[in-house]
Amino acid sequence: MEYPARAQRIVNSISIEVAATPIRMLVGIRNGLVTAVFSDTRRQSGWTAPHRSLAERICPRLLVLGPAVLVGMSTDHPSTSFLPRALHEATIALDFASVTKRVVKFSDLPIRDLLLHRGRDYVQSAPPNWIAALVNADVNAGGSLIQTLRAIADADMNVQKAARLLGKHPNTVYTRIERIKELTGLDGQRYHDLTELLLAADSRRI
Asked: What is the pLDDT of residues 89-128, one digit of tens each?
C-alpha cells in the first residue's frame, strides 16, 4: 500500500470491528497489503450447534471499511499449516474485487473465472493460431462477432433466442456464426467449440 498511515487506519478499523466478537485475529501489513488471519472455535461434536463459515461471518464487518478498500478472503481452513494456501486464495479473490463488489470470498468465485485466472497467461503466451484473426475481425465488426458468441451462450445455444437478445434477425446470427467458422474452423453452435471460442476470447481480453 502506497500510504502506510492509511494502511494502519485499516488495521485499526478491522481490530475495532472484530473486538466485540469471539473471533480472534492477527493483523498486520505484509508486502504493502493489510493481511489478517481470523480464527474461531471449531464445532467440537455433533452436539454443538453448527456455525456459519468464518468467512461469511467476517464479510459484513469488512464492508464497513470504506468504499475504497478492496478485500479478498480465503475459504475457512482447519489450522495454521494452511496459511500459505489461505494467503494464495485471498490474493486471487482480491484480484476479482472492485468498487462494485468490494469484498470477494474465494469460495464464491465461479469455476470459469478461476480457470481463466489460472490459465490466461498460458493462453496469452501460446494463443491458438486463429485467435488473432477472430479478434481483428471482431474489432472491424464493432465487437459483434464475440458479442454474438456470448448471446448464443446466454441463450443456451438457441439461435432464435440469441437473435432476440441481440435485437437481430436470426439470419444475421447465422451469418456471423459462419464468419466465425471461416476464421477459426470452430462452430459456435457446437458446445465444445463455443466454449473454446469464448475462453480464448476472454483470456485475450483480460
From this structure: 999 999 999 989 999 999 999 998 898 888 888 777 788 8
Q: Are 29 and 11 in contact (CB under 8 A)?
A: yes
Nearest to 30, CA basis, from 98, 91, 79, 107: 91
Query: Where in the chain are the domains?
Result: 4-109, 113-205
At 193, the amino acid letter reads: D
CA quadruple 79, 80, 81, 84: dihedral, nearest 10:
120
- With cut-offs at 50, 70 and 90, classify the pLDDT of residue 135: very high
CA distance 148 to 128: 20
Q: Are strands 33-39 and 24-30 parallel, antiparallel or unpaired?
A: antiparallel
Distance of CA 139 to the CA centre of its chain: 25
Q: CB of 73 within 8 A of CB of 106? A: yes
Q: Where are the beta strands (DSSP E) in 17-149?
A: 24-30, 33-39, 71-73, 103-105
